[in-house]
Amino acid sequence: MRWIVLVLLFFGMIINFADKSIIGLAAVPIMEEFKLSYAEWGLVGSSYYWLYPVTGIFGAAWADRIGAKKVLGFLMLTWAVLQFGVLAITALPLLVLYRILLGAFEGPFSPVAYSHAHKWFPPKLRGFANSVVVSGATVGAMIVAPLLVALISILGWKAAFACLGAASIVWAMAFQFMTKESPAEVYDKAKKKKQEKLEKINIKEFLRVLGSPSALFTTLAYFSTYFLVVWLAVWLPIYLVEVVNMSPAQMGYGVAVIGIASTFIYIGVSALSDYLFKKNQNWRLSRVYVVASSMVIGALFLASIIVFQHPVWVVIAMCFAKGLTYAILPIGPTIMINELPERGGLMTSILTSSGNIAGIVAPLVTGFIVGLSGADKVFGYNLSILFMAALVLVFSILFSIFVKPDTSKREENEHESRLLQSSN
To answer: Where are the transmembrane segments (predicted)?
Structure first.
């Protein structure tokens, strides 16, 4: 059952990020249809994240209370309604409203999915499990890009969006009929106890945990990487066409290659982290140092495309930049949940929603920089890339210095692991 859950969460994340990224893949026809400037397009990209951080926190807390299965099914059905609603969009205000609502209802999915996977897998496999969930994001945002580009060119951008709505309905039905809320033995024995913990949470203790160096600098590292996540979704397609001079078809395949290669890279980093954790139970070595080192190297690869802008090198460098910096995405939730296990969904939502504040800033900053550069678009894009590389570099170093996960919870996690193994 745990593998069925993981596979469905993987496909759910594909839909989630396909919903996010298709707007970038359809950027050219949308901008032409509504006669949008770069600044207005930055507004469209940013609007998705205006409510995303807030609803992510409340949605994950709601899932902690009533169950992830119900919440995830509800979210998917709302996505379907909104994607079919695209057929009625006729002007920029409606496009912005659609993106705001879509972001609001997609905000809780990632933290709830991470927390749900956390319940089904023991500590020694959680890095891998989360990396599989994260890989769904890469597949949805990049690997399926050629398919989405083909749908846009054949059916038009509105009909392509509606196809994603249909996929959401299929997923919601499959998740409801093919999965359970949690491993039977763990759920039956711990359900009442967990509900009591949720009712008696100590607010001061919760705020203390959020303000701890481990939670704070994990969140900041996630924030810096998510700046790149948003840039890849909103601006990479345009960058490859306008700066690297790829055709739309070449752009689609380039995005897919970056997605495939980077997926193997960050899954490999997560597997290495799990291996080291299983071997020595050292959080600093297996989780913190592995992730921080990967992010530093990824930032250097990202910065390199400013100097070498040959299409082949840009694709290679972006593969490593994305794959290595994304290491924080599967491991970060593991660190946050470790700080307050009984509030896994809420802790993960704090991480993802705080990181997603970058989603509000990134499209606007990039659009502003590119717009200021005037005719010299290459300079504007290069400046935005340099900014992202510096951001990742600084926060990954701070992450390596200050994040020291609470190892006192090791016995609790090991006991939970034995329960999970016995129930599966």
So the answer is: 48-64, 71-90, 127-153, 159-179, 215-241, 253-276, 288-308, 314-336, 357-375, 381-403
> Rounded to an integer, what distance in angstroms lies between the CA atom of residue 337 and that of residue 340?
5
d(CA 66, CA 202): 20
Angle ∠(217,46,21) on CA atoms, nearest 5: 90
Do residues 180 and 70 lie in contact, with contact meaning Cβ atoms separated by under 8 Å?
Answer: no
User: Domain limits of the chain?
Assistant: 2-181+212-412
Length of the chain: 424
* Distance in angstroms (rounded) separating the CA atoms of residues 224 and 227: 5
Q: Which residue in 265, 326, 291, 271 sits closest to 396, CA to CA?
A: 291
What's the confidence (pLDDT) of residue 142? Answer: 67
Residues in the chain with pLDDT values less than 70? 141-142, 184-202, 406-424
**Tokens 């200021």, residue?**
372
pLDDT at 197: 47
Query: What is the distance between the alpha carbons of residues 296 and 389, in angstroms, rounded to a whole number?
Result: 9
Q: State which fold the 2-181+212-412 domain adopts.
A: Growth Hormone; Chain: A; (1.20.1250)
Half-sphere exposure of 285 (CA within 13 A, CB side): 8
